[in-house]
Amino acid sequence: MLSWSDGRHSALSCDDASLIARVLNGERQQFAPLVERYQAALHRYAVSMVLDHDVAADMVQDAFVRAYTNLAACRDRTRFRAWLFQTLRNRCLDHLKDARRRNIPLEAAGSFIDPAEGPGARVERVRVRAELRQALARLPDVLREAFLLRYVEGASYDTMAELLHASVSALKMRVLRARAALAADLLNRDVTETAPARLSVRRETGETS
């Protein structure tokens, strides 16, 4: 499975193009390798944006169905990854227009429980994770998206620029603003005081990639 930061993508983009050509020539089964290649990364992105595994899974499935149905509309087949991502991104942003979907209950963080932890530490970890998810949900969509692509997916700024159709400088500013907003939000809720190590985010090192 690939991530958005996978260095092999430049070589595989040509393979994407050849697979698409074969699908359009009637070899429908050749769409399966494209699904396998990008499904995990798309699902991670969708979960990070909508904060619901079931909704994210439905959106990813819908994105692949739309991509298959409209495959002939992908003019630059070597950029299939960005085209597919944009299809999913539009679905996520439409979903988030309903502000009622931004409230994430405490139990939504239950999947982060570590069975090796004691009961007290386990409850605290769930609380911290839930607060972090709530803080992410309160970020403007464009800031949360940039933050998650950079820190969850480990995408380079060049890759982010391709996927989001924004300049590298603009994306660096979005990430910076997201980090500042998260830090302020979590500090106001005393979350960073309880578990600073769990919520630490590596600093930018001035890289341009």
Overview of this protein structure:
This protein has 209 residues and is an all-alpha fold. The protein contains 10 helices and no strands. It has helices at 9-24, 32-50, 53-69, 80-96, 119-138, 141-151, 157-164, 168-188, 191-194, 196-199. Helix 2 (32-50) runs parallel beside helix 4 (80-96). It is globular.
Spell out the helices and strands N to C. HHHHHHHHHH
Tally of structural domains: 2
The CATH C-level class name of the largest domain:
Mainly Alpha
Provide the helix percentage: 55-70%
CATH architecture of the largest domain: Orthogonal Bundle
Shape: globular
The major β-sheet equals: none
Which regions are unreliable across 5 or more consecutive residues at pLDDT < 50?
103-114, 191-208
| Structural class by SSE content | mainly alpha
Rounded to the nearest angstrom, the radius of gyration is 19 Å
Name of the CATH superfamily of the largest domain: Winged helix-like DNA-binding domain superfamily/Winged helix DNA-binding domain
CATH fold type of the largest domain: Arc Repressor Mutant, subunit A
User: How many helical elements?
Assistant: 10
Comma- or semicolon-separated keywords:
Rna Polymerase Sigma Factor, Chain: A; 209 residues; 10 helices; disordered C terminus; mainly alpha; single chain; Arc Repressor Mutant, subunit A; 2 domains
Topology (elements, then pairings):
Elements: H1 9-24, H2 32-50, H3 53-69, H4 80-96, H5 119-138, H6 141-151, H7 157-164, H8 168-188, H9 191-194, H10 196-199
How is this structure best summarized?
The protein has ten helices and no strands.
